[in-house]
Structures are given as C-alpha cells and as structure tokens.
C-alpha cells in the first residue's frame, strides 16, 4: 500500500491536523500497519488480514466491546484511558472502521507515545512486568460477559479438536512421514487425557468462561518509557471467549523457554523455573481474588498443555506436508515440535516446583 493510498484512507477518519506521512510500522506479520503523522498528532492505521480473519467485522465487534468496557473501567479508576488501552478513532460517518469498495477493512488507533515493546525477555524484570500487564488486563475484564464475544478463529485453543486433527494426520499419513516420527507421535498419544482437561473444565462450569487475549507474547505489552511499568496490552485481534489458563500457559511456553522455538540442539531447551516464578508472581499479584482456586490449581498444567498443543500442531503440519506454518529448512516443523516436546517433558519434571510457586503467590495475593 503506497503512501498516497494511506492519505486517501485517512480522509475517511476524524483525525486532528493535516496529513503529513505514512510509514510502515512495527514487526507484526499479520496485518499491514502504518504510522500516520499529521500536523497535530500521530495514529496507527491497520488493514485487517482477511486471510487469517475471514470475518474481520467480527474481530472489530470484539475489539469495540472490549476497549469500550476498558475505557469505562479505567476512567472509573481515575486512570488515562488513552494510554492504558487502545482507542479506536471513528470515521467521519461515526463508525469504528472503514471498509473500502474492494472489501478491505481498515481501522485507526490513537498512537500511544513514550512507550515501547520488547521483542525478547531481556531480563526477569521485563517478564514480570508483562505478567502484571496481562494479569491487570484479565482483572479489568473479570466481569465482562465473555459470551458476547465472537469466536473469530474457531477452535483456536480447543485442544481436543487439535488432538483429533493430529490423530487424523497420523492415520492418513498423506506424504509418508509417519515412520520417521514414531517417537514424537507416541509422545503425544501418551498424553491424550491432557487434551480434554481444560476444555471439559469450562464445559462443566468448573472454571469460568472469560475474555482471553490469545496472543500473550511479550511484544504485545507496551512499557511506559518513563516509569518502566507495563502500560497497555495491545493486538486485540484474537480476543475471544475462553480460559485465562490459555493466556497464562502460552506466556510461559513462549517466555520461560531457554531456547528459540525451533532450536535444534535440544540440550539447550528447558523451562527456566525462575522466569516461571517471576511471571506467576506478577500475574497473580494483579489478579488478586479475581482468579478461582480451581484456575490457580490448573496454572502449572496450563503451561504444559499450551506447549503440548503447540508441539502437536507443528507435528501435525509436518505429517501433512508443511502447509500451515512457514518453513525455512527441511524438517523445520519437526524441529519445532521436538523443541516443544522437550519443554513439555521438562515442565513435567518441575510440576511440583511449579505448584508450590503458584500456591505461594495465590495465597499471598488473596491474604491467606
């Protein structure tokens, strides 16, 4: 999308000042994102990727509901809603997004200044602050009616469905790779009962249905440049109904690993228990009594489950011919799967420690 296209698009939104420029912005790989400069302010313009999100209006439905709710909560708490959550800029006809004649959906956010995002866990303190931000996000939304949200990516964290897809890929063995990954296949089969635990807990009302972010990576938290504190949770495209356990577990999978997601030297792969403790501490400090005892009990398991789910997806894609995840070398998806499974095994060996850590901070956060 060229700069003059951006200028034409900007004319549809209620912006302060005169358009100056548009520059590609950020390191995201899903949406087209531009920093818009005007004579008075800065904005973020995005085109929602309709290959990933087949119904972008449902994505916007969720974002509008959640950000409006957060704005009201932040104001009630005497905070700054224009820095502490995303703010959609309306179009000139009063809508929250603009659809071109070609069907592309664009949205505009206020730019949050004097804030930054970290791409990697440079030190435990940053991971702790990201945990506080996601815990605060969850706490603020504890009384939001999650059933009002659309499931923009069907069965995204339905681990039972992921397991069934895996078994089908094994049975079909469409390109003959099954023989070389028998150990990895058995690793997943041995943990079949894990797949249904959280899904069933939601269905049986053992744990509540909640608003979940579903992409709780470190770089989706903006850190205030002045205070150094977590300021705002961003990238709300995958906000859906689900369990907070999905968010917590995926954060640990991604952030507490000692190695890259596709590390080939498995001797360097394990879960850093210190980082697990930092994240648990920050998350539970912000949640307080907003988390149930059953959810707290399942937090260590959720880290294992989200890691197992991710590894299973990589292995499924490898068996099916590498069609879903981009690969950059032969057996790339297999390397990814093996890394995740090594993490799972390490988490299993540390489950007792993880449970003690959760219990410690759950009790202190609830005044026990």
Automatic annotation (TrEMBL):
SUPFAM superfamilies: Protein kinase-like (PK-like). InterPro entries: Aminoglycoside_PTrfase (IPR002575), Kinase-like_dom_sf (IPR011009), Pseudomonas-type_ThrB (IPR050249). Gene3D superfamilies: 3.90.1200.10. Residues 24-260 form the Aminoglycoside phosphotransferase domain. Pfam families: APH. This is Aminoglycoside phosphotransferase family protein. It comes from Ructibacterium gallinarum.
């Amino acid at each position: 999308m060229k700069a003059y296209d951006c200028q034409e698009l900007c004319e549809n939104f209620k912006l302060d000042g005169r358009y100056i420029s548009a520059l590609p912005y950020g390191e995201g790989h899903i949406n087209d994102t531009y920093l818009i400069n005007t004579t008075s302010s800065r904005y973020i313009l995005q085109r929602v990727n309709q290959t990933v999100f087949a119904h972008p209006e449902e994505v916007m439905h969720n974002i509008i509901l959640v950000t409006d709710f957060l704005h009201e909560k932040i104001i009630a708490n005497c905070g700054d809603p224009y820095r502490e959550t995303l703010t959609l800029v309306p179009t000139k006809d009063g809508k929250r997004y603009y659809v071109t004649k070609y069907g592309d959906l664009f949205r505009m956010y206020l730019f949050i200044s004097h804030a930054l995002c970290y791409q990697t866990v440079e030190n435990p303190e940053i991971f702790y602050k990201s945990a506080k931000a996601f815990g605060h996000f969850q706490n603020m939304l504890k009384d939001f009616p999650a059933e009002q949200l659309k499931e923009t990516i069907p069965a995204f964290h339905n681990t039972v469905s992921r397991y069934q897809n895996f078994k089908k890929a094994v049975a079909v063995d469409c390109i003959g790779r099954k023989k070389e990954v028998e150990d990895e296949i058995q690793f997943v089969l041995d943990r079949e009962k894990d797949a249904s635990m959280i899904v069933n807990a939601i269905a049986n009302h053992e744990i509540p249905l909640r608003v979940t972010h579903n992409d709780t990576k470190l770089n989706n938290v903006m850190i205030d440049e002045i205070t150094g504190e977590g300021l705002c949770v961003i990238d709300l495209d995958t906000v859906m109904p689900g369990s907070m356990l999905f968010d917590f577990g995926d954060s640990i999978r991604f952030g507490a690993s000692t190695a890259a997601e596709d590390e080939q030297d498995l001797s360097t792969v394990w879960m850093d228990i210190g980082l697990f403790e930092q994240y648990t501490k920050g998350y539970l400090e912000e949640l307080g009594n907003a988390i149930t005892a059953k959810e707290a009990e399942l937090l260590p398991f959720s880290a294992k489950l989200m890691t197992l789910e991710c590894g299973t997806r990589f292995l499924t894609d490898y068996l099916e011919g590498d069609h879903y995840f981009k690969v950059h070398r032969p057996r790339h998806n297999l390397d990814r799967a093996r890394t995740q499974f090594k993490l799972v095994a390490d988490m299993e060996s540390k489950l007792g420690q993880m449970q003690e850590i959760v219990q410690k901070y759950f009790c202190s956060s609830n005044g026990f």
